[in-house]
Design a protein that fits this description.
Layout lengths: L13 H39 L4 H8 L2 E6 L2 E6 H27 L5 H25 L16 H10 L6 H25 L6 H19 L9 H14 L5 H9 L7 H16 L7 H13 L3 H25 L12 H31 L11 H10 L4 H11 L3 H29 L12 H9 L1
Antiparallel strand pairs: 1-2
């Protein structure tokens, strides 16, 4: 009978291997959801385009302008459905982004300055160069769109890497994720500083009060998630009133979420065993042991991990596709491609995404490595870095979102959206082609098990 493989490679440290596997497992889950949701996003974007250019295009526009009223008593807000998707539901998307940023800073790639140096430099280069390319071909009103080609859509980008299969080592996926998270931070800063209206101090005070209430509830050991919806709503309303885009509220709440578990693995086992023992005594009421069991289950992991695990699929398969359906429907007949302003705007976005992203990420990475600020991840060459730069040019969700903030004119906004779609499609196609030509088809012979496989083997 053949012997089972050892739980760890002979040269590996068991402790270091377990720590690495513990960090990699949530990344694997995150990337898996993002990869599959990219297909859903693509499908909904195609539906939106076909619908907006069909004989029923009027129903497309009418649907998103349908007024929706939300409120109680005198506190009533009446806005179009499009507003509640872009300013309401997308706040939940930004909340998940905030949770991922919080977790990455605590224990992920951004927790170690040495590991964070390369994705930080690459992300900055990948934002600055596309913006400069855009501004070089656009002046006047169209210059407001400089932030559009700076964004990266992690779902589509990871989806392209999935299409390349075993050509992509795990280190490239981790690098792309870290870069995309820093890219999201940059997009959040850009939205807050450059795409917000005049700031109202009253609104900031309301938002600050909501944030303070969250901290007070945490100090009072309030652990029920529903209780925090009240201060989260205050922050959202305060941001809206302050003239700052309200989706920033989601990031603030995500960053304020505790990143450490209360019980942890050992505490969960102990509390659960105690509850089971008490439940086995016939004279004891079952309700109290069941309550303790539920509490142990809830507190076994950190609030950041629990909320991310719960909300991420809803965001990936629900909110983001709905956003794509509501925003990707560009009636091509209404886009004045022959107009000089629209043509320059579209050229700036397409060049910014397709050329600026790989150029900026590649140059920034090269300079950083040559200066000794950071080093390439093990198993990643310059072809892998360039591939990350190419697929980072897939802007889609965040790029369309920023375009909606930059341009109020429907014709200009339509041109910007169409350019984002074209640029993202070109980046995806170039990424697949580049990966198949430049990266080896199979991993090196005798390669070790993946961290996920090794961890599974250890548990068995």
């Amino acid at each position: 009978m053949p012997r089972p493989p050892a739980p760890h490679p002979p040269e590996a440290s068991p402790t270091a291997h377990r720590v690495a596997a513990r960090v990699w497992r949530p990344l694997e889950r995150f990337l898996h959801v993002e990869a599959t949701s990219g297909l859903v996003l693509l499908a909904t974007a195609l539906v939106a385009l076909l619908w907006a250019n069909s004989p029923w295009s009027a129903t497309y526009e009418h649907l998103w302008h349908t007024p929706v009223t939300i409120g109680i008593g005198a506190f009533v807000t009446r806005e179009p459905l499009h507003f509640w998707i872009n300013d309401g539901l997308m706040a939940i998307f930004f909340f998940v982004v905030g949770l991922e940023i919080r977790r990455e800073i605590h224990e992920g790639e951004l927790s170690d300055p040495k590991r964070a140096a390369l994705p930080l430099a690459a992300a900055l280069g990948g934002m600055i160069v596309p913006a400069l390319i855009y501004l070089s071909v656009n002046q006047g009103y169209a210059s407001r769109g400089w932030g559009v080609p700076t964004a990266t859509d992690i779902a589509f980008a990871v989806g392209v890497l999935v299409l390349l299969g075993k050509r992509i080592p795990p280190a490239i996926r981790v690098l792309l994720l870290a870069l995309a998270i820093i890219d999201d931070i940059g997009a959040i800063v850009i939205i807050a500083l450059f795409y917000s209206t005049g700031v109202s101090l009253l609104g900031l005070a309301i938002a600050g009060g909501g944030a303070l209430l969250i901290l007070v509830l945490q100090r009072l050991a309030v652990r029920r998630s529903l209780v925090y919806m009240v201060p989260a709503a205050l922050i959202w309303f305060g941001m809206l009133r302050a003239g700052i885009h309200p989706t920033i509220a989601g990031v603030i709440v995500g960053m304020l979420t505790p990143v450490k578990s209360w019980f942890g693995r050992e505490g969960f086992v102990s509390a659960a065993q105690s509850a089971i023992d008490d439940a086995g005594q016939q004279e004891r009421d079952l309700l109290e042991p069941l309550r303790r069991m539920k509490q142990a289950q809830r507190e076994a992991v950190s609030p950041v991990e629990r909320h991310q695990s719960t909300l991420h699929p809803w965001v990936a398969y629900g909110i983001m596709p709905l956003f794509a359906l509501a925003n990707a429907g560009v009636n091509i007949r209404d886009v004045a491609i022959a107009d000089a302003t629209s043509a320059r705007l579209m050229l700036g976005i397409v060049l910014g995404l397709g050329l600026g992203k790989p150029l900026g990420i590649g140059l920034a990475s090269f300079v950083s490595v040559r200066l000794g600020v950071c080093a390439l991840p093990r198993g990643v060459g310059w072809a892998g870095i360039l591939l990350v730069g190419i697929v980072a040019g897939i802007g889609f969700t965040m790029a369309i979102f920023i375009a909606g903030l930059a341009f109020a004119n429907p014709a200009t906004l339509g041109a910007a959206k169409l350019a984002v779609l074209v640029g993202s499609l070109l980046a995806a196609a170039c990424g697949v082609l580049f990966g198949k030509v430049m990266l080896p088809a199979q991993p090196p012979a005798g390669s070790a098990l993946t961290l996920e496989e090794a961890e599974t083997s250890t548990e068995k």
